[in-house]
């Protein structure tokens, strides 16, 4: 869990930083999960990895801001991915959606839209942030 959710992000980011430091636009967006802050029984290794990712991303934001390299985290809530739709019974997903403030669950596109903005030149000053994509939950 640590290798997949933290070490992999570290190794990829280290490689990408070398390109950014040669003058390319610098936007790093890590994807976390609301479980990193909200918790869930039986998910301690996952939550530990995501919490480490938060610290890593924040450190990058502070260390590289003067070079124009920004680092942010997108933190989706329960999202209607193919995996979640296969793992959860439809009636359970409907129950989650009906109790949600937005009366629906997030879609991969909801998170992707924010990732696209944060990773683009249109993002000229958002740095060091963890942004929830939860529809108000």
What are the salient characteristics of this protein?
single chain, 137 residues, alpha/beta, three-stranded parallel beta sheet, 6 helices, 3 strands, 51% helix
Can you give a write-up of this model?
The longest helix has 21 residues, at 44-64. The chain has 6 helices and 3 strands. Helix 1 runs parallel beside helix 3 (44-64). It has a 3-stranded parallel sheet with strand order 1-2-3, with helices on both faces. Helix content is 51%, strand content 13%. The protein is an alpha/beta fold and 137 residues long.
Gyration radius, to the nearest Å?
16 Å
* Helix/strand order: HEHHEHHHE
Shape: globular
Structural class: alpha/beta
Main sheet makeup: 3 strands, parallel
Count of alpha/pi helices? 6
List low-confidence stretches. none
Kindly state the percentage of residues in helix. Answer: 40-55%
Query: Mean pLDDT score, rounded?
Result: 92
Number of E-type strands: 3
Quaternary structure type? single chain
Strand content: 5-15%
Between the first and last Cα atoms, what is the distance in angstroms? Answer: 26 Å
Largest sheet, spatial ordering of strands = 1-2-3
